[in-house]
Amino acid sequence: LEELDTGGCPNLVSPLPAVKDLVRLRNLNFYGCEALRELPELDGLSSLQTLNLAKCRSLISLPELNGLEALRTLSLRSCTSLTSLPASLCSLTSLHTLDLSFLLWLLVRM
After folding, report:
1. Residues contacting 17, CB < 8 A, separation 6+
2. pLDDT in tens, 69-83
3. I need a surface site. Which of 17, 22, 63, 86 has the fewest CB within 10 A?
4. Does this model's pTM top 0.85?
C-alpha cells in the first residue's frame, strides 16, 4: 500500500496502530478528520513523503517523527488543539514544506 487516504472521516479518533507497519506507504492523509486526537508511532514509515493532518482540530500531540527520512511535506494547518511540536521535527532533513498556518499559539511562542 502506497497511499492511505482517510481524509474527511469526522468520527475517526485514532488510526489503527498497524499504520506504522505499512513500510511502502508514501502518502498518508487525515485531512479534516476533526475528531482525530492522536497518531500511533510512525517510525516504521521510512518511505513516507507526505503527511497531511490539516484541519485535524482535535489533535493534541504528535508522536516523535524519527525514521521519516523521506518526509517532504508535513501539513499541520488549522490543528488548533496542537500544543507543541516534537523535537524530532528538526531532524527531518528531507522536509521541504511545513505548513503551520492558523496555529496561533505558535505565533505567541516565537
Report:
1. 40, 41
2. 999 999 999 999 998
3. 17
4. yes
